[in-house]
Design brief:
The structure is a single chain. This protein is mainly alpha-helical. It has a domain at 22-90. Helices cover 61% and strands 5% of the residues. The chain has five helices and two strands; from the N terminus they run αααββαα. Strands 1-2 form a two-stranded antiparallel ribbon. The radius of gyration is 20 Å and the shape is elongated. It is a multi-pass membrane protein. This is Synaptogyrin-4 isoform X2. Belongs to the synaptogyrin family.
């Protein structure tokens, strides 16, 4: 492992330049936020009443709502990790079809809040 002699050498490294890109920063923040939502729903989304030991969903006592929210949070966290990893190796990818498929999937998933059923960004 190579240790830099100064902080200036560290700031010029490829890893630091990658992590300072706006796309990388947004993916890291997206991963952190999805992890917070996933973990809070997993730990506090199910509670039991004092007279019963059975766990109930706090989202209108609907088990499917809690399951969907936990699953969506977990999938969004995994997608942030996968896209961050593929972004890190993007220059090393040889196949143009894989690059195009990756960029298309990234565009589709990034535009998901713009679906008619979900509120999107103001136009």
């Amino acid at each position: 492992m190579h240790l830099p002699e100064s902080l200036h050498d560290l700031a010029d490294s490829e890893t630091v330049r990658f992590l300072r890109r706006p796309k990388s920063i947004s993916r890291v923040f997206g991963g952190v936020f999805s992890l917070v939502i996933f973990s809070s729903l997993l730990t506090d989304g199910y509670q039991n009443r004092t007279e019963s030991s059975q766990l109930r969903c706090v989202l209108n006592s609907n088990y499917m709502a809690c399951s969907f929210a936990v699953g969506a949070g977990f999938l969004s966290f995994l997608s942030c990790l996968v896209f961050l990893a593929v972004d890190a190796y993007e220059r090393r990818l040889v196949g143009t079809r894989f690059k195009i498929a990756f960029q298309l999937l990234d565009f589709i998933l990034a535009d998901t809040p713009g679906l008619p059923s979900l509120p999107g960004p103001p136009r």
